[in-house]
Amino acid sequence: MELVERFLRYVGFNTQSSEEGDGCPSTARQMEFARFLKEELCELGLEDIYLDKHGYLYATLPANTDREVPVVGFIAHIDTSPDYSGENVKPRIVRRYDGKDIILCAEEGIVTSPSQFPELLNHVGEDLIVTDGHTLLGADDKAGIAEIVQAMAYLQAHPEIKHGKIRVGFNPDEEIGMGAHLFDVEKFGCDWAYTMDGGEVGELEFENFNAASAKVTVKGLNVHPGYAKGKMRNSMLMAADFIRRMPVNETPQTTEGYEGFYHLTNVKGEVEETVLSYIIRDHDRKKFEARKAYILRLAEEMNVQYGNDTVGVEVRDQYYNMREKVEPVMHIIDIAKQAIQAVGVPCQVKAIRGGTDGAQLSFKGLPCPNIFAGGLNFHGRHEFIPVQSMEKAMMTIVRIAEFVAR
């Protein structure tokens, strides 16, 4: 079908973003895909198509009703995660999944098994798009892009479905936390929007983590190891002490639901200097602030022990919980719930254990909840997406447009 063909075409583009990138977009390959999308939108006949120098692409599906209708937007991100290769993605479709192990690569014994990923069993009998075990799939968020573009094509092909003006937006660098920074909310011109960037079919999210990054720099002193007694200060050992003092039961692997965490994402060190990279997450704003204060206080305690200026911490807020911006306009959640249920799926309202461009956009004045795109096991070789989930996500967009016009 056209939706699947569109998605498979999109995942052929390697659009990984990069923390090391200089500028926006962080990688040139994202702009290459954005140009391709721009041409597709032109061919579909959308209007007001604009691609800026940073890789932000905007377009309009004009209203087909004379009624005054709120302008609603749909947003997805162009980039895929830098955590796993997106080069030369080779997807395939497992027809009518039978509930057994899926062999991704027989030669290397790479298998996606329901014993490890029990969510597979929720999709027995469906058609699953999987990888060959050597790359991520890219459903996060090329599925969202495909669903939005296909929904626009569907509405054009069905003029009997009345809708107001619809705006679509595709942005770079979401995976590195920069996706909404240069998003032009004023130019987008919507009353509200939805990101199509969620996971399992039926999910609707308007709560997310408050998020910050913390860069911990530990300074040491290197001297010849043969004459080091009383002189050498090994920064790696002091950094290990810092790690040891962090709460052991407040990590991603020990928390769930509304529980926050500290996550050590990178360690780079030698005797003279070691840098620890942390991310800090919590749904509760007060607890979030307390977490940031804790990591700063720990640095102070270590400086008392090891000497002033041994440990330095730079904390940077990334985004906040969008709930406080969505609650005053809860009708946008009610419309999404109604649309999800209309496509035959139970609506599952849940809190995101992560972030979304919608969080930053909500604080920029564009309330922006997150709707399922249908993919699972993002950012790795076991990523997959049921075709039927993509179809339901696409039709959810259509129904939202229809219900808003009512």
Describe the structure.
The chain has 406 residues and is α+β, with helices and mostly antiparallel strands. The chain is 31% helix and 23% strand. The chain has ten helices and 17 strands. The chain has helices at residues 2-10, 28-44, 139-157, 185-188, 235-245, 285-306, 323-326, 331-342, 357-363, 387-405, and strands at 47-51, 57-61, 72-77, 92-94, 102-105, 110-112, 128-130, 166-171, 192-198, 203-207, 210-219, 261-269, 273-282, 311-319, 348-351, 370-372, 385-386. It has an eight-stranded mixed beta sheet, sandwiched between helices. A four-stranded antiparallel beta sheet has the order 12-13-11-14. It is globular, with a radius of gyration of 23 Å. The two termini are 29 Å apart. The model has no long low-confidence stretch (mean pLDDT 96).
Secondary structure elements and their pairing?
Blueprint: H1 2-10, H2 28-44, E1 47-51, E2 57-61, E3 72-77, E4 92-94, E5 102-105, E6 110-112, E7 128-130, H3 139-157, E8 166-171, H4 185-188, E9 192-198, E10 203-207, E11 210-219, H5 235-245, E12 261-269, E13 273-282, H6 285-306, E14 311-319, H7 323-326, H8 331-342, E15 348-351, H9 357-363, E16 370-372, E17 385-386, H10 387-405
Helix pairs in contact: 1-3, 3-10, 8-10
Provide tags for this entry.
31% helix; eight-stranded mixed sheet; four-stranded antiparallel sheet; 406 residues; alpha+beta; 23% strand
Low-confidence stretches: none
Mean pLDDT: 96
Order of helices and strands: HHEEEEEEEHEHEEEHEEHEHHEHEEH
Q: Kindly, what is the distance between the CA atoms of the first and last residues, rounded to a whole number of angstroms?
A: 29 Å
- Please estimate the helix content: 25-40%
What quaternary form is this?
single chain
Strand order of the largest sheet: 1-2-8-3-9-16-10-15
Q: What characteristic shape results from the CA principal axes?
A: globular
Work out the helix count.
Answer: 10
Gyration radius (Cα, Å) is 23 Å
What class would the helix/strand composition place it in?
alpha+beta
- Quantity of strands, as a count: 17
- Please summarize the sheet with the most strands: 8 strands, mixed
Strand content: 15-25%
